[in-house]
Amino acid sequence: MTSIPQYMTSKHRECDDYFTEAESAVAKENWSEATGKWQQFSDELALHLTQEEETLFPQFEQATGMTAGPTQVMRMEHQQMRALVQDLDNALNNKAKDEYLGLSETLMVMMQQHNMKEEMMLYPMMEQHLVNGEQLISSFEQS
Ligand SMILES: [Fe+2]
Ligand SMILES: [Fe+2]
Questions:
Q1: What's the gap in Å between 89 CA and the centre of ligand 1?
Q2: Ligand 1 centroid distance, CA of 25 (Å)
């Protein structure tokens, strides 16, 4: 049985790994490697954000009655992350190395700050408030 903080944190790490691999492939102008790693990163990130927005956040809001609190901030940051992912996608398609590396730096900082807030605050609060946490995670493990 995996807890919410354990599982969701491990997914942050997986995304980080693909992201770093894509970045170093771009730095070496190894475009096919970069495209593969980038695709893995963006698929994994999209799934993770959806699991938060469509399952974990609503469950947390329902359990605590906090709809204008941390989940609202996290949703806004997800939108900022998605916009940067789109810009990075365009830069990669254009093989625009410098542009990619600049945007990549920005997204990395944004993700680190976002993930830290979830790992230090939101996931532990979810673990505390959601009685069906393990069930939700096992449904994620099967998706
Ligand atoms: Fe998030
Ligand atoms: Fe997250």
A1: 20
A2: 26
Predicted structure pTM score: 0.96
Question: Structural domain boundaries of the chain?
Answer: 4-141
> At 75, which helix (H) or strand (E)?
helix 70-93
- Between the two ends of the chain, the Cα-to-Cα distance in Å is 16
CATH architecture under which domain 4-141 falls: Up-down Bundle (1.20)
* pLDDT higher than threshold 80 for residue 41: yes
Q: How many CB atoms lie within 10 A of CB 141?
A: 9
1 pLDDT exceeds 80? no
CA of 52 to the centre of ligand 2 (A): 7
Per-residue pLDDT reduced to its tens digit, 50-95:
999 999 999 999 999 998 899 999 999 999 999 999 999 999 999 9
Q: What is the DSSP letter of 67?
A: S
Amino acid at 46: A
Which helix H or strand E contains 132, and what residues bound it?
none
Check if the beta carbon of residue 91 is closer than 8 Å to that of residue 34.
Answer: no
Summarize pLDDT for 10-21 with one digit per residue, the tens.
999 999 999 999
